Amino acid sequence: MLGVCYYPEHWPESWWPEDAKKMREVGISFVRIAEFAWSRIEPEAGRFAWAWLDRAIDTLHKHGLRVVMCTPTATPPKWLIEQFPGIVPLDEQGRARGFGSRRHYTFSSPDWLRESRRICEIVAQRYGAHPGVAGWQTDNEYGCHDTVMSYGRHDLEAFQGWLRQRYQTPQQLNEAWGNVFWSMELTDFAQVTLPNLTVTQANPAAALDFRRFSSEQVTKYDAMQAAIIRKYSPGRWVTHNFMGFFTEFDHFLLGDHLDFASWDSYPLGFVERSGLDEAERTRWAETSHPDIAPFHHDLYRGIAGNKFWVMEQQPGPVNWAPWNPVPKPGMVRIWSWEALAHGAEVVSYFRWRQVPFAQEQMHAGLNRPDRTLSVGGHEAMEVGKELFKLGVLAPSVQSSVALVYSYEAAWMTKLERQGQDFIYSDVAFRYYTALRRMGLNVDIVRPGASLKGYKAVVVPCLPYISPEAMSAFRETQAQILFGPRSGAKTHDFAISPQLPPGDLQALIALKVTQVASLRPGLTAAVAGHDASGREQAGKAWRWREWVETELQPQMTFQDGNGALFTQNNVSYLAFWPQDDLLQEVIRAHVIAAGVQTMDLPEHVRVRRRGKLTFAFNYGPESWNIPDTATLVLGEREIKPQQLSVWE
Ligand code: GAL
What we know:
Number of strands: 26
Structural class: alpha/beta
Number of helices: 18
Low-confidence stretches: none
Shape: globular
Helix content: 25-40%
CATH class of the largest domain: Alpha Beta
Number of domains: 3
Strand content: 15-25%
Bound molecules: beta-D-galactopyranose
CATH architecture of the largest domain: Alpha-Beta Barrel
CATH superfamily of the largest domain: Glycosidases
């Protein structure tokens, strides 16, 4: 189904009924509201103005629309900040972050926690049982604008408490962090400082714990909101809208208390946020790279409940990327269908109408400010009609291939880059792309998730192998491919005592003795055979390792050192291959696992959902679907920016 984000408080009330009617005409079923409306709900401490919101919800409900209600905590109003100035977060430089945009709170302020509880309870009590309310979104985009970590007094106190619980004694903390180095030893938890404003790099073990703590603060905060909603709004689901290429807290952990995850898909904006190089960014500027949105669909489907929503779908140009092109005609439709093909239950557009004032006035909506449908609005309407034609889509089933994704891996490689371009989300994305180029459905799973039933698993990089992750790797029959830096660190961020890949040595008998990061332009030639015995040659870039082992390498570096090894069902790749070689290594890996593949050009992707196969053409050339297919939607020749669906 389709949805939309709507801000009744931005528009004259006389427009609401007309808006609701038009939403129905576009094919919209769900309307998300009120996530930024605190100042209108409670204009002064304790004085509530419900009437307008009652009428807004009633209007939508009367028109047959189902409301996604939000808690308004992403935008604490001015009076609240004046009353409790300790709510605002401090940035890494120790400066208070000002009022005047959004997300100006720290998760560790006791005043904030109390005030959040209060507003959530009041809103949930008022609307929890409203027949028009289908479910809830908590807050809005945790962490957006760099707001997971805060460096103030409350954060420090909460962090000290967290460490006390975890380490019991300062000696154990010193031991875990290696504080003897540079005389960093502490004799009391009260001496702990935050890992900012240090003269040079802070101890990465301390910084990692601060990230773990900050991540848990987000989860605890959200769990508090979810519990309140469930108390007052029985039978309704709870979700949160996550972001793209965002790794600052562990979304898997937060997802444990959600009914399902949702996320905000801005395929063009994310081109600029991706690890793609300049030429690639230009190539995909007006369509997005065909794997950017799908990567996140697969990630968020795996967070909770084996389903997801796109809570905010880009409807046209946005305002916040360094450049904001207009999507090529057809792309809003393609992005919507990509989401649905990947298992989305609802695609909800951001926003109903472009707003002519304040920060986001240059951000498109389904309608232009003059109240007529925009290009994106027309495309959404087309999707609405097509959805009606296709009927109910099948539920998502397990794929044959999984990619193991870890937030902690992102933190560890960020805290210890070692090579500037070793960016976790980029390495994960490039492995994912290689799988998608072969027409595969991919599941993205957390470390420790059961890997039973998969034929092939890829682990692009997993520095710390938890006991749960280790047992999942042991128990699966799948062919597993580990990328470099896997098993390199302990839980306390020290080098694995038996050397990398640490505990993985029980699965593949090799030791990494040296590592090198490779600056742009510096590469290492690699040649040999892939897992299916085909000859391969290519280059390592960004990262390579030296390995000591009795195993015969399948590929070697020019200097004779091994580069790719396999023992039983486990392979270890001792470098970051350039894309073409990575493609071949991964192809051989999944073929050896017995997975059927197809070869897609770089601008075409397919995805299966139930009996249906969807194909998407990101351009610039046409692509023909297989002869045997029975078309359900579209043409046999898929023109650029078009899609087809067949059985
Ligand atoms: C999202 C956010 C929305 C809006 C949108 C603009 O990150 O949740 O409130 O700002 O971006 O693209």
